[in-house]
Amino acid sequence: MLARYKYRGEERLLPWLAAMLQPAYAKLSEELLIGDGLFSIKKNAAPAFDLITSVPVSEQRLLERGFNQAERLAASLAVRIGLPARPLLTRQEERGKMSAKTRKERLETAIGLFTSAPETPEILSIIARRSPVQRRSLRLLLVDDIYTTGGTLDSCAFALQMAAPVPIDIYGLTWARA
Fold first, then answer.
1. β-bridge mates for residue 141, sequence order
2. What is the pTM of this model?
C-alpha cells in the first residue's frame, strides 16, 4: 500500500496510511506519559509531544512524485491527533535513491544530508513558550515512511539538535520497517 502511495502517486491512500500510524503513535504517547506521571485512564492529561515534523525529500524527488510522502503522513496524523505539524528540515542534495544502496552506503549517505530550515530555531522557541506542559525539553515527533537503518532519522535528529535554541527530545515514527 505504501509503495502505491509513494511511487504510483495514489494519494487517496493517505487517510488509511495515517490511520495505520495512529495506534503506534498512541502506544508511544502512552509510554511517555506514564513515564512522566501524566497519563490518566480517562484521557491523556497532556499531549506527549509538542510538535510533529517530517523527513524532507530532495527537490528531484519532489518533482518526480509531486509530493513529500513523509510530510503528508505527518500532517495527516497531526490533524487526527490535534497537534501542530511544521517542516523543520531541509535536504541538502540528492545523493541517489536510498533503496538502491547497501546498509553501509545508506548510513554513509545520511551523514550531513539534512540541515534545519532557517525558521526552525524561531518555531521551536515559540512552541516552547506556548507548550501546555512544562518539561525539561520539548518533544518532537519525527515522521518518515520507512525505517531501514536509522541513518536518516539520526541525521535529521542531529540537525534539529544543532538548531534548537531550547532542549529537545526527538522520537521517530515510521509507517514501515524494511
1. 52, 171
2. 0.87
